[in-house]
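QA checklist item 7 of 12: single-chain prediction sanity check.
[x] sequence parsed
[x] length recorded as 335
[x] structure emitted
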Amino acid sequence: MGRAQLRARHPATRFSARLVTAFATAFAALAALCAHAAYPDRPVRLVVPYSAGGSTDTVARLVGARLSERLGQQFVVDNRTGAGTLIGTEIVARAAPDGHTLLMATPPLAVNPALYEKVPYVLERDFAAVTNIAASSNLLVVHPSVAAASTRELISLLKANPGKHNYGSSGVGGAGHLAMALFTSMAGVEAVHVPYKGGAPAVADLVAGRLSLMMANLTTAQPHIRSGRLRALGIGTSKRSTLFPDLPTIAESGVPGYEANNWNGLVAPARTPKAILDRLYREIAAVLREPAVAERMAKSALEPIGDTPAEFARYLGAEAEKWGRLVKAAGMRAE
């Protein structure tokens, strides 16, 4: 007698089989739920694709320390530099999707696929957004010898002297390069790009007068502006910064629609359970509301954001589209 005949003659057998299947399904779901509820069950690796001491590293260590206390497991910062952030990014793209290996994401995550001929990831395929944690603004700064006291005056100066003024950046495709390329494109001006191996030497040459202008990170430029060694003309955010409330945005100073920020977000490997992504988001949002954290960020010229996973995912897509168009139009390539 076959199994089908046996089940037909014995309904209890069919019921028992269905019951076993139902129990197995429920048990699997319960096990998954318990695993997510226990997250994290071991130290979490927080990959920072930059060296220690920069704004991204600062955000990672500040938020990571509070997450360690709140969640009962260490969030260990792992600085993995090189290849325009690709080394650290690939580590997380290939990691297990269990929430125990995370990436501090910055603009290159969205830009690099357009900038490099080949990258080891596809943004929408290999990563899941958690939250955009904090932003540090770009400032349009000039050496005091440059005859421009505002963004409009600088645009007029550059239009009258095409290609005669130079600007520095941390390297081809870096945040400063992209922000300035967007500015020159939207303002219809020309300036010569001088790439450096890092933002610090570029700022040093600007202070020394070997460069005319630069789109500098607020964190790096702030002390030089306050000392008078650099002059700030505008800020790259859509709204004025609480740190420099009297400094107009570039958008309101002759380049409508201009916006270029240095953001610091958190992403996980794709297929990380939604329950884990949501918990990380909620915990980070709570951390950002703590007065002590807000004070630390303000001192580091950082502004907290804390948007939802869905909001951050949309933002990443918009960033990739925006900068991809610019990179293609400008013919930028990194090696």
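[x] summary fact logged: The first strand starts at residue 44 and ends at 48.
[ ] second reviewer sign-off
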